[in-house]
Structures are given as C-alpha cells and as structure tokens.
Amino acid sequence: MVNRVEKLSLLSEMIAFAKYDKEIKRLEYNFLLGVAKQLEITREDFDYLIENPVSYVHLKSHSERIVQFHRLVLLMNIEQRVYESQRSGVVKLYNFGLRMGLSHEAITKVLYLMESFPNKIVPPDVLIDVFKTQYN
User: CA of 79: how far to CAs of 25, 26, 33, 73, in Å?
Assistant: First the structure.
C-alpha cells in the first residue's frame, strides 16, 4: 500500500508533468484534483503542492508504478489536441517511466499503442498486459 509521503510524491510528479508546458490547464487541474481525491489528499495539500513540489520517492511496488505511468498517459492526453509541446511530453513521459524503473520496451510499446486508440487513451487492461509481457 502507498503511504502518505509516496502519495504526495506521486501527485507532485503529476503536477510537474502537467506544468511541463508552463501552465496547468483547467482540464488538467480537474484531472489532478480527481487523482488527489483518489489518493485521499486534501484540496489544501493539493493546492500547496502546485507551488511547493515534494521530492520524488521511488515506489517499491511494480504495480503501483504501472498505475502511476497510466495516470501520466491519461494526463498527457486529457485535452485531446496535439500541441507541439506534446512531442516533448512524450519524451518526458518516457523519461518518467524509466525513472520509475519500468521496462524500456514496455514504455515504448505503450507509447506506440497510444496512437491507435481513440483520444490516445490506452485502456488499463491493455497497458497491464504490455507490462506483464515485459515483466515475465
């Protein structure tokens, strides 16, 4: 189970990812707020994290890292529009995945598969299957 420090780190990481193109858009903010609620982080703590990021904490659980990677995929594609910065967002997503200790091959496959789904949203079961295949 993920502890409070890990939850704050996860959310802080997602906020940093959303800020990659300098500002958090309304849809991104609402998505992040939903993740905060899911992680049982208060609105006050969430708003504090936006201006005061916490240090990255490496998740021990492989499955939690996969869930976090999926959240980042969803966050990146939430606006359903292609921005020039989204290309660099893919690179940043790839690097986040590597930093989390996920398989290079699985990350690459997910990013490739992302293009074939409506709104570039990879369904959770497909994402899990990709990582299972690479993990075994």
Answer: 9, 10, 15, 12
